[in-house]
Amino acid sequence: MEPCLRVRKAAYKSGQVIHDFGQDSGNIGILCSGRASLVRLNVNGTRTILETLGPDNLFGEQLAFSDGKTDCLYVCCEADCTVLFLNYDDITKRCANACRCHSRLVENLLELISKKNLRLSQRIEVLSQRSIREKLLACFRLLAIEAESPAFTLPFNTSELADYICADRSAMLRELSKMKQEGLVWVQRRQIRLPDFEEKRSTL
Amino acid sequence: MEPCLRVRKAAYKSGQVIHDFGQDSGNIGILCSGRASLVRLNVNGTRTILETLGPDNLFGEQLAFSDGKTDCLYVCCEADCTVLFLNYDDITKRCANACRCHSRLVENLLELISKKNLRLSQRIEVLSQRSIREKLLACFRLLAIEAESPAFTLPFNTSELADYICADRSAMLRELSKMKQEGLVWVQRRQIRLPDFEEKRSTL
DNA sequence: TTTTTTAAGTTGCAAATGCAACAGCATATT
DNA sequence: AATATGCTGTTGCATTTGCAACTTAAAAAA
Question: Does the domain made of A2-120 have the CATH classification 2.20.25.90?
Answer without folding.
Answer: no
